[in-house]
Design a protein that fits this description.
PTBPH1/PTBPH2_RRM1; acetylation; mRNA binding; 5-stranded antiparallel beta sheet; Alpha-Beta Plaits; alpha+beta; single chain; 7 helices; disordered N terminus; 16 strands; RRM domain-containing protein; RRM_dom
């Protein structure tokens, strides 16, 4: 037991402080779990979670120093170590006398969240899935996604800090539901902090960025990066002049079909540059523009007769359009 007595001496040789430094926490440790561990010893006035390069350290500030001393003393002499989720937590006095500001980087509540999606490539989680997950908490104004050294990240703008906080509290450390992810993705944890931004500047609708408050924002083909994910379709089936623009007629409209829905369906085959939806002969039709004929041909072959919703609802019939470049500067809703 010499190592534990070494640990004990190490603790006692420090200057006591009402702030304790905790190490070896689970990296997704929450503030609630810290409070649960420490509250038997006194009143906690401040915490700082997920610090350090591995996000496995934390600081806890008690109301007074004697409470911190009692916690250190208890675990120094206890045969049971302090534990969170089965991991032994090492406790020592901090060299600071107070947690100066719990609201340091990423913790000042704002209306924009910075979300890091761990364990995925940029193409694995679509902007529509991100929108679906976060709009459960309130109206999402804008989303911008990008790749950084930290991984695939998204900025998500809500109406106010209260809504953003409720989304953060519910989702931080959680995973996106499996059924919304491609099969090859094992898990994707969400790491969520507050961004200093208050209003995102979205110039174009693309599958990198969306402004849900402005459906008439232009679609920028060059802003939409996509790759053909499927091999080329069967050749030599030129029954009609091929085109890079498909005309989709939608039958059995049990549910509303929006530009976003169509974008999700058609972008499985490659970059969708523009979409126009209109009513014709009492039904809904849409024009969907791809960069070239090859992608359009693959999409047409795959989606002809396909129902967007289970149960035979919103069935697609596809033909080639005479258009090659839609004049729409906007998503037409």
């Amino acid at each position: 037991m010499s190592s534990s007595s070494g640990q004990t001496q190490f603790r006692y040789t420090q200057t006591p402080s009402k702030v304790l430094h905790l190490r070896n926490l689970p990296w997704e440790c929450t503030e609630e779990e810290l409070v649960e561990l420490c509250k038997p010893f006194g009143k906690i006035v401040n915490t700082k979670c997920n610090v350090g390069a591995n996000r496995n350290q934390a600081f806890v500030e008690f109301l007074d120093q004697n409470q911190a001393i009692s916690m250190v003393s208890y675990y120094a002499s206890s045969s049971e170590p302090a534990q969170v989720r089965g991991k032994t937590v090492y406790i020592q006095y901090s060299n600071r006398q107070e947690i100066v500001n719990n609201k340091s980087c990423g913790d000042v509540a704002g209306n924009v969240l910075l979300v890091t999606i761990e364990g995925v490539e940029a193409g694995d989680v679509s902007i529509d899935v991100i929108h679906l997950v976060f709009s459960a908490f309130g109206f999402v104004h804008k989303i911008a996604t990008f790749e950084k050294a930290a991984g695939f990240q998204a900025l998500i703008q809500f109406t106010d800090a209260e809504t953003a906080s409720s989304a953060r509290n519910a989702l931080d450390g959680r995973s996106i539901p499996r059924y919304l992810l491609p099969e090859h993705v094992g898990s994707c944890h969400l790491r969520i902090s507050f961004s200093a931004h208050t209003d995102l500047n979205i110039k174009f609708q693309s599958h990198r960025s969306r402004d849900y408050t402005n459906p008439y924002l232009p679609v920028n083909p060059s802003a939409i990066e996509g790759t053909v994910q499927f091999p080329l379709g069967p050749d030599g089936k030129k029954k009609e002049p091929e085109s890079n623009v498909l005309l989709a007629s939608i039958e059995n409209m049990q549910y509303a079909v929006t530009v976003d829905v169509l974008h999700t369906v058609f972008s499985a085959f490659g970059t969708v540059q523009k979409i126009a939806i209109f009513e014709k002969n009492g039904g809904i039709q849409a024009l969907v523009q791809y960069p070239d004929v090859t992608i359009a041909a693959v999409a047409k072959e795959a989606l002809e007769g396909h129902c967007i919703y289970d149960g035979g609802y919103c069935k697609l019939h596809l033909s080639y359009s005479r258009h090659t470049d839609l004049s729409v500067k906007v998503y037409i809703h």
